[in-house]
Every structure is written in C-alpha cells, then in structure tokens.
Write a structure and sequence with these properties.
two-stranded antiparallel ribbon, Multidrug resistance efflux transporter family protein, membrane, transmembrane, EmrE, transmembrane helix
C-alpha cells in the first residue's frame, strides 16, 4: 500500500502539468515550448541530485554500455509521452486531457506480454492480469463518459486531435518506463534513471525548441515561468515519486497496474486546480459521473492489490521453515 500512496502523491504533482499546460495554451503559448522547456528545466535539478549522491559515474557507464536502448526507450517514455500531451492541451481543458490520460492504466495492463521474467533460469513471458484488466476496463468506461459532453460541443476533428495524441502518450509512458527498468535491471536508482532518460531525450527537445524558435519565436516570460514550475513539480518530484513506486513492484504485473492506476486521482486535483486558478466551471453531470467511475476503478485496483498482498503473506507464513 505504500507504493499506492506514493502513486497518489505523484498524481498530485503531475496534476500541475495539465493545469499549467492549459493555462499556457489559453495565453497563446506554443506546445513546442511547453514540452521542451519542461525537460530543459528538469536537467539541472536532476544533475545536482545525482552528482550530490555520487551516481554520475555509474550512470555514464550504463548509458555508454547500451546507448541505442537508452535513446530509443527514453524517446518513447519521455518524448512520445509529453509532446502529445502538450499538443492535446490546445483542444480541451486540463481535466479532459487528464481524464483521457487515464487510458494509460488500461494500456499498462495490455503491455504485459511485451516483457519477459526469468524464473529458475527460464524465460517466461508475462501474461495480462485478467482481474487487473477487468478493473481497468471500469476506468475506461469512465473515460468514455467524460468525453460525451465534449463530443457534443466540438467538431469531430478537434475531438480526435484532443484524444488520439493522449492515447499515444498513454501507451508510450508505461512502455518507456518499464523498458528502461528492464534495461537498468536494478543497477541504477530512480534519480539516475530519470536523469539518464532526460539526457537521452535531450536531442529531440533541442530540435523542437529550434523549430519553435523559427516558427513561433521566443516563449513569453509567463510561459517560461510556468514551464519551470511544471519541470520541478511534475518533471522532477512527480516523476521520481512515480518511478520509485513502479520500481518497487516491477516484478508483479498486478501490483504494477495498481500503482499506475493511482494516476486516475490526477483528475480530481486538476478539476479543483482549474476551478481555483483558471476559474473554469465544474464539469457537466455526465462528465462528473465518468470521473466518479474512474475513481471507483482506482479504488478497486487498490483493494485487489491489498488482497493479493495478504495472500502472499499468508502463503509465506504457511511455508515458513522456521
């Protein structure tokens, strides 16, 4: 349950992303700057942390040993995750993007067969945890419900542009995160892994920033400041907390799905934040019902994880040779 608590705390800091990305879009800021600036600001903070913990030499050694994998999965986990989210912010409020983002919970469960576990020296392909998939499907129903009011007020093209990029991000984030856990295999701590992924994704952010400079010009001081807040809150604090939680349960697909399900609480934080900071109205009743269904799904994930933990504890007690 500690991992789930970490996940919920991470969701609180992640919520800043959706609120401020929408705020920057309302002010006319380009998604190109919103996405690239976040990682530019993350880099120095993470560098200081890793250098202070004397972990830079090991990180450098690991990245040199497998540069292709670092570049590939960092691109998937960071670029294909965050660039689509900032792009989608132009087509709807933060709570809508955040709500659609919860599809990552279903995506995370479906990705299980892409990973292999070593058991007794034998390579075993992981299976989709059926109970977790069923619970995640409840969350998917909630996501569909929150889209209904939006679908009635915007064009089909705008709806697709606001949803499809988020679905891409929903698959990319857990895939990149899990693949990098597989690459590191416990040799690096969370700070080193996040810094490594940030460094490996930096070429893409630099290219996007150069493109933004020649197409939309320099970002406004407001966008720079808000991106700094996003970089610290979401990029450093939330990412590290979430990666710590997933690291602890990386060998159990059911528990991993439960930790990823905690991100559904982002929606609550985003709604409150947008109402207070951006003076946005409360979502429609149908959307609120959808949000309620998402939260119920998250609670079911937590309860299922608790039951599984108790079964493991009982099993270990029964077979304890002492």
């Amino acid at each position: 349950m500690k991992e789930i608590a970490l996940g919920i705390l991470a969701a609180l800091f992640f919520a800043v992303t959706f609120i401020l990305n929408h705020s920057m879009e309302l002010e006319g800021g380009s998604w190109l700057w919103s996405s690239s600036l976040r990682y530019f600001f993350m880099l120095p903070f993470l560098l200081v942390i890793v250098l202070y913990r004397r972990g830079m030499n090991l990180l450098t050694k690991e990245m040199k040993a497998q540069p292709t994998k670092w570049l590939l999965w960092s691109f998937v986990g960071f670029v294909l995750f965050y660039a689509p989210l900032t792009f989608a912010a132009a087509f709807g409020p933060g709570w809508l993007v955040s709500g659609t983002w919860q599809f990552t919970i279903v995506a995370g469960v479906l990705l299980a067969p892409l990973f292999i576990t070593m058991i007794g020296g034998e390579r075993i392909r992981q299976r989709i945890p059926i109970v977790s998939l069923l619970i995640s499907s409840v969350i998917l129903i909630g996501i569909i419900l929150i889209q209904i009011p939006q679908a009635q007020s915007v064009s089909f093209n705008s709806l697709l542009l606001g949803i499809l990029p988020v679905v891409v991000a929903a698959f990319a984030y857990p895939l990149g995160n899990r693949k990098m856990m597989e690459v590191c295999d416990g040799r690096l701590d969370t700070y080193q892994r996040v810094l490594g992924m940030t460094i490996a994704s930096m070429p893409t952010w630099i290219i996007l920033a150069i493109y933004a400079l020649f197409t939309v010009g320099l970002p406004s001081p407001s966008q720079v400041f808000q991106s700094l807040i996003v970089g610290i809150s979401s990029g450093v604090i939330a990412t590290v907390l979430f990666f710590i939680a997933t690291d602890r349960v990386r060998d159990d697909q059911g528990k991993l799905a439960a930790v990823e399900a905690t991100q559904s609480t982002e929606v609550i934080f985003v709604i409150i934040g947008e109402m207070v900071l951006l003076s946005l109205p409360l979502p429609d009743p149908i959307a609120l019902c959808g949000l309620g269904v998402i939260i119920i799904g998250m609670l079911l994930h937590s309860y299922h994880t608790l039951l599984q933990s108790k079964k493991v504890t009982i099993g270990e007690t029964q077979f304890d040779p002492e």
